[in-house]
Amino acid sequence: MSTRSVARRLRLPSLGGTAPTAGVARTADRRLGYALVAPVVILLLLVTGYPLVYNLWNSFHNVILSNAGAPQNFVGLKNYQELASAAAFPAALARTLGFMVVSVVIETIAALGLALMLHKAFHGRGALRAAVLIPWAVPTVVSALLWTTMFDSRSGFVDYVLGILHLPGSQTTWLAGEWTAWTAVLVADAWKNVPFIAIILLAGLQLIPGDVYEAAKIDGATAWQSFRRMTLPLLRPALMVALIFRTLQAFLVFDIIYIMTGGGPGTTTETLSYLNWQAFLVDTNFGYGGAISISLVVFSLFIAGAIVLVMRPRT
Amino acid sequence: MDSVPAPTTSVTPVTPGAVPVAVAVGRWRGPRGRRRFAGQVFFYLGVLIVLLIALFPFFWILRTSLESNAEFVQGVGGANGFLPSHLTFSSYIDDFTQLHFLTPLLNSAIVALGTTAVTIVVASLAGYALARLPIRGGGATLTFILLAGFFPVLAMVGPLFLLYRDLGLLDNIYPLIITYLVYTLPLSTWLLRNFFAQIPKELEEAALVDGATRLQTLRKVVIPVSVPAVFTAGILSFILAWNDFAFALSFLDSPSKFTAPLAIVVFGQSQYQTFFNRIDAAVVVITIPIAILVLIAQRRIVSGLTAGSLKG
């Protein structure tokens, strides 16, 4: 690498330099490189590395702001033991994992259909693509409040239409029941996130060369066979990227829960991130909250690692 | 007489998907053609359903936002069905006069534009260095930047809350700019790095040979040809920063400091009865800039999302 670039420079007549000057230029380039990369690294360390270390420290200490006089002494694994013993954490973990699996499976299947639709050349494809991008681009606050309106028993569309069609459930107060609330959350989440997965999968579809399909057609493969045997395997890299993004987002779901249900009714829609927010900003218990945060980081790494292991190309 | 397509019609260049009518009619003849026709109908029906799912909820909040308080309290149904019996802008007027929605909108604009500006400068410089300069550990740095983008937001909230409290920066919109970089820098740095890596090296070398410094080359040669990629990074950064809720909720306290998404959620909580017509009016208002951005730049958004995540 270095000798090649030196040689290239030597061939350029106007430079007129010798190997040492090129080496000097290279060292200068390298220094400049570090200077240019430093801001990104420092800023990202400030907002992620610093919280990681601070959370780790807090999680082994007694840090409760509402108890200002108390010394912030070392408490060992007390905060982590609390995670396991208090019912709230295991219950929230189970709910969060359940939501993650159900939402990611449903959304990925829907997104695959949408991506295949957007991949087809037809009149109005650009308009369709813009239309489905808008739900992704609007703030989560918008999708959450929009679907809160849609599911509201007084002003909502869902109960209104069920009533017009004389279908059961037209008197449902959706956000007041555990499973109806989860349904509303799932719909709002899917509405916002299916387009994102679809865009990633669409890019994957566009990377598949067309002659692969023509060869299959000549060999007499049906549409389903060529989808099953060729599209899906060739889509694997894009699918992996989409799954990592979406699974982690679903695991860390917070905004939509806070806005639509506030964790209720009762605590039936409290997720891990919601629990973490409560620990920090309601209970001001930064030791216990730190322990939840560390568990979020560990679970996230574990989930991402598992997806990579399962989805990586088999050779 | 009959418009059976001559074989030559297939020679005329047609854009994909654009089927000349005569050819189309020919294609739909016979049992096979009928099946193809049914397939087409089925397909466009699917497109219609997708369009409805994507856009109908926007119609419904627009409809609700145009109801008066009296109509809203009465609820949907009867004469007040798919369209309210009287359209009124009173919710919009209430939002801006009684609820002072302009302040949070301006706060959001300041924070989102500030985040975008910092992101573009920092991510361009780093992206260039990672694509072009002979630094050691470039791969590890890129991996770190990618991983930072996956860091749980709630795991940042606690420690940053304590940090901002100690620095006296709570209830202040400017620290949000630094915080939001965690949303914007990973995607933007990757996107710009991938773009810079595919610019022909000869372009820069010519300038370097003429005695320009690296930074001059970056400013005069690389940046001008990278305007589309920088623009894409800017749009995505703006959207991501405009959309935050969790950090604003955790770090801001007084209504005059709220960002728009936070203000809207509080509109709903502060009243005895939830007036969705007022909430939805505000929702419509903050959706408009995003919808406009998507309509003018959908191609860039799509390519930016995929370039930042799929390649590399």
Structure description:
The complex is a heterodimer of chains A (315) and B (312). Chain A has helices at residues 2-11, 19-59, 78-85, 88-119, 125-137, 140-151, 157-164, 178-206, 210-218, 223-234, 236-251, 255-260, 272-282, 286-311. With 315 residues, chain A is mainly α. Chain A folds into two domains: 2-59; 87-311, MetI-like fold. In chain A, helix 4 runs antiparallel to helix 11 (236-251) and helix 13 (272-282) runs antiparallel to helix 14 (286-311). The longest helix of chain A is centred in the first third of the chain and has 41 residues, at 19-59. Mean pLDDT of chain A is 87; it is low at 1-19. Chain B has two domains: 1-47, no CATH class; 99-309, MetI-like fold. Chain B is built from 14 helices and no strands. At the A-B interface, helix 2, helix 5, helix 6, helix 7 and helix 8 of A face helix 2, helix 5, helix 6, helix 7 and helix 8 of B.
Topology, please?
The complex is a heterodimer of chains A (315) and B (312).
Chain A: H1 2-11, H2 19-59, H3 78-85, H4 88-119, H5 125-137, H6 140-151, H7 157-164, H8 178-206, H9 210-218, H10 223-234, H11 236-251, H12 255-260, H13 272-282, H14 286-311
Chain B: H1 21-27, H2 30-65, H3 69-74, H4 90-97, H5 102-132, H6 138-148, H7 153-166, H8 174-197, H9 201-209, H10 214-225, H11 227-242, H12 246-251, H13 260-269, H14 276-309
Helix pairs in contact in B: 2-14, 4-14, 5-8, 5-11, 5-13, 6-8, 8-11, 8-14, 9-10, 11-14, 13-14
